[in-house]
Amino acid sequence: MRLCVCLWAVQFVATLLAGPLVGQGKADTGETGTQDDTSPNFIFVMADDYGWGDIGYNGGNASTPNLDAMASGQHSLKLQRYYSGGPVCSPTRGTVLTGRNHNRYCVWTANAGGGTADFVRQEKMPLPLYEYTVAEAVNTRGYTTAMFGKWHLGDFKKLEGGNPKWPVSHPGLHGFDVWHATERSAPTATTNCGCFSPPKCISGHWKQNFSCTNYWTANPSDSSNIMNLTTPEPGDDSLFLMDMAEPFLRQIAPTKKPFFLYLPLHTVHINYIAVEPYRSKYEKLGYDAETVDYVGAIEAMDVQIGRLRALLKELNIANNTLLWFASDNGPAKGTPGTTNGLRGRKGTVYEGGVRVPGIIEWPNVVSENRVVNTPIVSSDLLPTVMDILQLKMPDDRIVDGESIVDVIRGKSENRTKPIGFMFSIKKVFTSQFNATWVNNKFKLFMNMKNGKPAKTVLYDLIEDIAETTDVSKKNSAEREQMYTEFLQWFQSVQHSAEHESQCYGVSQPDEESEEWYEW
């Protein structure tokens, strides 16, 4: 089956590269480091529910030698204050692509995806088609764009018998030339196993029946024909996704045309499943069954990161490729994941929910390894790419992220724009929710009710990474300034949702529907 899927990918990419969609940008001619960096390749790899403390260099239990080597390499930046754009899946994925806070376009929380009940889907908004994505931006410069992995920003086909106004929102409608994706979260091994009878699942410590989450793609000869995978995926999902990415890279590298590759992995979201040899390794180390699956899946992912880096070097495109690794949020509650002392977990706006591993590698530009403590967020990807390519930012919408080109080049250690977080499983403008406003030193935490703070706490993140002490009294002027800035930003986000979006008028979900949220 894996051979079949890879041949499908080769055929798809070959068809694309023979057509008019790709541009005439430059690519590496060798590993000399002299390549012009004005049209680099971009690869953004994102793990799922991978906590700040799960990675080896931050004390993780899993062995991650490849990620550790990437973070400590001569041409790399270890981003120790890297933030996901939201505390759960879909919100962050929206920020990666748009550079905008997810509440501006009504992606309040994790999107349903996969054909769940229509009354639930009405509250789990897809990425609107009017949003401008980083894939669409690089398309204007002749880049070929590809996405393999977890989409989680909308359905790929109309739900039979569902709401006729519910928009389809798949990667091909947001600028990706080549894509092979799932609509939502899935097991980290035998991902589509629940789609067959009997199920073809490696269950690990998970004993329940698995639901069907399949991979979909567009027919190479008819992009409107969305097809699903008709055979079971046999093993580890990170391996499967690299088996999709490798033919794409091997096909495009000789053409010397630039590309943008987005690899959102399923690891280490539930159901996390370890395959051999990682299962036996951690069983012999004495871990319990659930932890064996958790850390084994992480090591399997790490091996594929090493494979990706080695492939870029083999193809002589590593020097002029900006490779960015991150996670979509902190570790989920009730899992073996760790924040290594950070407060909170997935679903919270404390550091443990949104501070995640982050690494950038770009040999043509980064000449020596650095540990970067500048606040950086997933929303920074689009403005950074736009800056590198000298593309004009859209003037019809507010972009919350900022270019980090000066940080990458070592010219700056400070952030200009604070980072805002607002999260609720309901619309934040009409419900009680938690919010934070983060600058280079401080973090203002607010519990908001009816648009006003019921509680505010100021943390010094330089001195108190665990968020244990309120320093408001000693820094009252800073607290007032940050609250004023946040309030202006909050009003701006609300204005975007009300006046830019077609989704603001949906009704509140029933309390009973909260259990459906696919975190």
Short characterization:
The protein has 519 residues and is an alpha/beta fold. The protein is 26% helix and 17% strand.
Radius of gyration: 22 Å
SS summary, helix count: 12
Helix/strand class? alpha/beta
Low-confidence stretches: 19-35, 114-122, 504-519
**Main sheet: strands, sense, barrel:** 10 strands, mixed
Q: What would you call the shape?
A: globular
Distance between the termini: 30 Å
The helix/strand series, from N terminus to C terminus, equals: HEHEEHHHEEEEHEHHEHEEEHHEEEEH
Strand numbers in spatial order across the main sheet:
7-6-5-4-8-1-9-10-2-11
* Strand elements, count: 16
Helical percent range?
A: 25-40%
User: What proportion of the residues form beta strands (DSSP E)?
Assistant: 15-25%
Mean of all residue-level pLDDT scores: 87
Give structural notes.
With about 525 residues, this protein is of the alpha/beta class. Helices cover about 25% and strands about 15% of the residues. The protein has twelve helices and 16 strands. It has helices at about 1-15, 65-70, 90-100, 120, 135-140, 235-250, 280-285, 290-315, 350-355, 380-390, 405-410, 475-500, and strands at about 40-45, 75-80, 80-85, 145-150, 180, 215-220, 220-230, 260-265, 320-325, 360, 370, 375, 420-425, 435-440, 440-450, 450-460. The strands form three sheets. The chain has a ten-stranded mixed β-sheet with strand order 7-6-5-4-8-1-9-10-2-11. Strand 6 and strand 7 (about 220-230) form a beta hairpin. The two termini are about 30 Å apart. Mean pLDDT is about 85; it is low at about 20-35, about 115-120 and about 505-519.
